[in-house]
Amino acid sequence: MTNKTALLLSLLILLPSFSGCAGSGNAPAETAAAQVQTETESSVIQEDAPFYEKVLPMGRTYTDESGTVWMALSGSGMAFDVTGKSLKIKLAGDSGALVGQDGTKARVAVYLDGERVIDEMVDRREKELTVFEGDTERTAEVRVVKLSESTNSVCGVSAVETDGSIKPAAEKALKMEFIGDSITCGYGVDDPEHKLTFKTDTEDCTKTYAYKTAEALDADVSLVSYSGYGICSGYTTNGKQNTNQLVPTYYDKFGFSYTSFGFEKKADTIEWDHSKFEPDVIVINLGTNDASWAGSNEENQAVYISMYDEFVRHVREVHPDSYIICSLGIMGNQLYPCIESMVEAYRKDTGDERISAFMFDVQDVNADGYATDWHPTEATHEKAAKKLTDYIRELGLAK
Fold first, then answer.
1. The whole model's pTM is what?
2. Which of 146, 251, 349, 379 is an S-S bond match for 71, by CB 3.0 to 4.6 Å?
């Protein structure tokens, strides 16, 4: 409750004691009370608008009927400016927050003026975070970022509380979308000695080539990425095409998770409105998992090319003005010639020149090591981000 609201409510309590003193020109007590109540309600509506109307969404978010802002995909969250002496954020967990295994819960970070001040696993249905509190008022930019990926967990922000005020952070001039797999999710990046199996607490999308590229170009970013997923086949070890793990299946959805959230909602039942985030640049980095099936088999490679072409056409349909970069290479470049072939054929067929192929350098384990399950370390991600950033600038898409 604000001080102003508290004062007005106090007046409401005191008004009846003055009912016998109403003189000429004064409104009856009942009328005065009604006027004060109307003013109180009006001020509450103006001053206490829902917090989700005062924040800038980052990536794909979903606000449910309770007012909770849910985050599924890596890098999703919110940004806002706060002025006040204190700030608390309340997190909401999904169905796995209590019963899920320790390695599958959502990981969330809170940044204050660019510095990470909170790094938490969402292991409860409700969790309150104190970002700062004290006697001195301060103004700062706040970012809440989901560090872990969608498939294992969804989490939300149910409240933002301050004794001061908040407003949405300013939008960046450049917007980027990255469509990828575990590399884009930051799989195991916090396990630089390659000692562990997959756990969400070692996953951090802010240490990936995607997030680092967006930061280098001062861009707002949206990540649509799922570990083990591909264009025509998810990761497979039995030689059979894995069509259960395809990114195109969920590209038009809020996300995909094995857990439920809110009032038993599932992320993949919620349609995503692409107009909410119109990227200037889209980077597709898919093919690492497809290679486990397509490999050097020409027939399977033809399926990869065909399904990649189909996906690119859909991406172009929903984002007609974006420049599309089709990339591959960090964990292997076996299917890169297929990408080049697809891009060339697509350009000839459509006349669309706002698309190109780009190859990353394969990770150098001797120089930079491995993270979990042979995934890239932050050092590898930094090198990949530098190469991609330079390429985007060469294209004239950013400064």
1. 0.88
2. 146
